[in-house]
């Protein structure tokens, strides 16, 4: 075991941690978790790379290659699920690399990292689908206790019930079951497995997208609307979106002084007394935002229209290559960024915090919407898999 590299690692990591902490502490939004997590990842990759190089091998280049694939794909276009797949692929490859590094270097730190990853995998495998079902029922109970019992708020409960039925069915279907009984269960398992992998990729990139750091040189910030209380006042959820935008507005004003205008985007629903944009404007005025810094887009009824109509307002201002961001709740900004791209609007999102208990339900809703957006692609992939599995099953029946 090399003691000197470990000593220098602890030294430069501690120094970096302290400098980052001091720097971010002075910011309006410290975001210590993001910066410290990024620094930890860089420090560990650097340590394992140097340690292996000292041993005369360079296999660390393999996981670095996969990280580079993710990084350049993300830099080129942030809002696509491919980036989630590439990042997860990097994690898997890096996990395999840790196994190799543990065996060849016998380093204490690398062995500790491997042990931590191993425990996480074992816990996930142990809890498995039963643990997931228990969590979903618990979360559904919390959501029903604190929110309205609409279909949109019952997604975790519906998923828990569906998985419970699946577990019961598979428990009674044994390997000795007739092929015409086992085949549908196999196809159902395949579908759930595929959807799980797609969801993991979606969730990964949705989480990574939370850490956008737009430069404080923006010209416009679009605030996406939502339903109103009694048809005229912003809800706490919508207020958090506006507060997030106001925080960015004030931080930019302090740091660069670059002028920034709000675009309050939201039309009037059939049960609303005023357009959402008007209610949002009133809330912003009450928070001290000057009237002249607020533009209204009061015709949209969907996120895509939010982006499309807001782009028309931006184009009408006559600015060449206007710099634009948008604000919404954290679970929503990834899908909203996809709509921005479809509306030919070059804009990244910043996310307002959402109550933790509500996030599973919210991400499930976003995932369902993402599946609907790409339904033809997913149907084609599942169709091909169904045909292959069915053909193999029938072939085995014929041979037997």
Describe this structure in words.
By secondary structure, the chain is of the alpha/beta class. The protein has three domains: about 5-120, no CATH class; about 130-210 and about 375-400, no CATH class; about 220-355, HUPs (Rossmann fold). Helix content is about 65%, strand content about 10%. The chain is built from 13 helices and seven strands. A five-stranded parallel beta sheet has the order 5-4-1-6-7. The protein has a two-stranded antiparallel sheet with strand order 2-3. Helix 4 (about 80-105) crosses helix 7, helix 5 packs across helix 6 (about 155-170) and helix 10 (about 305-315) packs across helix 11. The longest helix is centred in the first third of the chain and has 39 residues, at about 110-145. The radius of gyration is 25 Å and the shape is globular. The mean pLDDT is about 85. Keywords: Membrane, Transmembrane, Transmembrane helix. It comes from Enterococcus sulfureus ATCC 49903. Pfam families: DUF218 (PF02698).
Briefly characterize the structure.
This is DUF218 domain-containing protein. The protein has 400 residues and is of the alpha/beta class. The chain has helices at residues 3-25, 32-54, 61-76, 82-105, 108-146, 155-172, 179-209, 236-255, 276-286, 303-316, 333-342, 359-373, 375-399, and strands at 220-224, 228-229, 233-234, 261-265, 294-297, 324-329, 347-352.
């Amino acid at each position: 075991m090399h003691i000197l590299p470990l000593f220098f690692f602890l030294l430069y990591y501690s120094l970096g941690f302290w400098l980052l902490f001091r720097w971010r502490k002075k910011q309006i939004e410290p975001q210590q978790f993001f910066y410290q997590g990024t620094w930890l990842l860089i420090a560990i990759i650097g340590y394992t790379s140097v340690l292996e190089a000292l041993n005369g091998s360079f296999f660390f280049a393999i996981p670095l290659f996969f990280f580079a694939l993710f990084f350049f794909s993300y830099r080129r276009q942030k809002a696509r699920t491919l980036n989630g797949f590439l990042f997860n692929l990097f994690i898997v490859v890096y996990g395999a690399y840790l196994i190799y590094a543990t065996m060849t270097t016998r380093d204490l730190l690398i062995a500790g990292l491997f042990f931590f990853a191993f425990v996480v995998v074992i816990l996930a495998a142990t809890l498995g689908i039963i643990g997931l079902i228990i969590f979903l029922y618990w979360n559904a109970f919390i959501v029903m206790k604190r929110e309205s019992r609409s279909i949109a708020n019952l997604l975790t409960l519906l998923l828990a019930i569906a998985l419970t039925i699946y577990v019961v069915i598979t428990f009674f279907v044994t390997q000795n079951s007739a092929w015409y009984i086992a085949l549908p269960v196999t196809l159902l398992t395949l579908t759930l497995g595929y959807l799980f992998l797609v969801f993991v990729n979606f969730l990964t990139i949705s989480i990574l997208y939370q850490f956008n750091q737009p430069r404080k040189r923006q010209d416009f910030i679009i605030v996406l609307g939502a339903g109103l209380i009694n048809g005229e006042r912003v809800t706490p959820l919508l207020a958090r979106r506006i507060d997030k935008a106001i925080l960015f507005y004030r931080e930019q004003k302090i740091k660069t002084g670059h002028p920034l205008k709000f675009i309050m985007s939201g039309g009037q629903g059939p049960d609303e007394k005023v357009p959402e944009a008007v209610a949002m404007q009133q809330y912003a005025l009450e928070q001290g935002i000057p009237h002249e810094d607020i533009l209204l887009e009061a015709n949209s009824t969907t996120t895509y229209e939010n982006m499309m109509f807001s782009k028309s307002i931006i184009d009408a201002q006559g600015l060449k290559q206007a710099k634009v961001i948008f604000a919404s709740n954290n679970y929503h900004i990834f899908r909203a960024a996809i709509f921005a791209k479809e509306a030919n609007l070059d804009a990244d999102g910043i996310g307002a915090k959402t109550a933790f208990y509500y996030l599973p339900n919210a991400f499930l809703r976003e995932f369902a919407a993402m599946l609907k957006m790409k339904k033809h692609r997913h149907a084609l992939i599942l169709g091909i898999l169904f045909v292959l599995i069915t053909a193999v099953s029938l072939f085995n029946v014929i041979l037997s």
